[in-house]
Amino acid sequence: MGAVLPAIALIRPALFPLLSLLLCWLALPHLNTWADDYGILILAAPFILAALCLLLAQVFSQGRIGQMAVLTIASYSLIQWQMQSTLDDPETWWLYFWLTLLFPLNTLFVRFLPDRRPLSPEGMLFPALLLLQAGLLLWLPQHMPAQIPTQRISEWVLTFLRQGDDPLLPLPAMFSFAIAAILLCVRLPRERDIPLAFVGLLILHGLMFWQFDQSYMSALTATLSLLLLLATLLITNHQLAFIDELTSLPGRRALMNDLKHRHGHYLLVMADIDHFKQFNDTHGHDTGDHVLRLVASQLAKTRGGCRAYRYGGEEFTLVFPSMDAIDCRPFIEATRERIAAYPLVIRDKQQRPANNRNGKKQRGRNSGQKALRVTMSFGVARRQKGETIEAVMKRADKALYKAKQNGRNRTEDAV
């Protein structure tokens, strides 16, 4: 089980992008049948979802998700209002060519934009850029020299691979996949779900460019893309509300929510870093944050079905399933000893490695610097039948206080 949970956490951000691609693949053969009964709803759904996505992005300050919703609905609108003829039409070829090139480029641009609310003055610059692009695309064909064979040029570029006389895969669709691969390899700090959601959107639109002549394909792509953005927005805000940003552990709100849904017996452990205030005052807040991250990473490795939380400040909480204190004691002691034995070397910022790989190589090489010792005290309380959350936490706090009184770096059981 200990190996399964990290694996689930690793693949979870890819769940909704993969689901959206699967839904697209399953729905594609049935589009024409559904359109007979729900044609208007299929065409209107992207506009409804885009409005909802923009509203939530504005409320929750999710600028990049909001801008991707703008890009998705702008592309869909251009297709619906200007590209309803076949690709044999020169004007449709022209717009199709530039759309397939500009969509991944705009996605890459949004990916690294400052995260501003979509309806803020800064956030409105991106929709203005899209309007400028659309205006140029519609204006240029009317003012280009007649001798330039735009249809032949675009057809030559678009038809990259052929199967007989039929185009198999357009070059811009391949371009979208290439940009998706780049985005997959680049992550901004504290981001997990947004990069994979953007990859999912690019792959969905790449499939749309490939099957562009399919009826209602653009509506299906826009609908699934906006649903993916909505799911990502909700997950991201859940993480902001329940996950501690510094340590990446679930926070106090997540702890209380978990305990409310636990019934019967469970073991609750309150843990506190010894002399943390003195350590923080002596070595600075940056080092203090490093200690908190170190402790959190070690607490998260606690076995026995334990789940670790950051309660607040230098205090953490461990929750074990229905087990006796004597059964959990070896797991708690192993964590306590592991933290106490970890060599913490204080480096100047100039001496700090530029990346994690170099940091791992230097770990354990003190270079003459003194390694500090971080210890923790633990108070253990087993919830009794009918006992409230506040009562069991109070008993665990008393046990923690007893561990502090008895010399710290130890574990005490509640009465």
| Through-space gap between termini | 31 Å
Strand order of the largest sheet: 4-5-3-8-9
Question: Mean pLDDT, nearest integer?
Answer: 81
Largest sheet, strands/sense/barrel = 5 strands, mixed
Q: What count of helical segments does DSSP give?
A: 16
Structurally, how many domains make up the residues?
2
N-to-C SSE series? HHHHHHHEEHHHHEHHEEHEHEEHE
Please give the number of β-strands. Answer: 9
Write a concise keyword list for the protein shown above.
Alpha-Beta Plaits, 16 helices, single chain, alpha+beta, 5-stranded mixed beta sheet, two-stranded antiparallel sheet, 415 residues, 2 domains, 9 strands
Structural description of this entry:
The chain folds into two domains: 4-242, no CATH class; 252-413, Alpha-Beta Plaits, CATH 3.30.70.270. Mean pLDDT is 81; it is low at 1-8 and 160-164. Strand 4 (307-312) and strand 5 (315-320) form a beta hairpin. Helix content is 61%, strand content 10%. A five-stranded mixed sheet has the order 4-5-3-8-9, with helices on both faces. The protein has a two-stranded antiparallel sheet with strand order 1-2. The protein has 415 residues and is an alpha+beta fold. It is elongated.
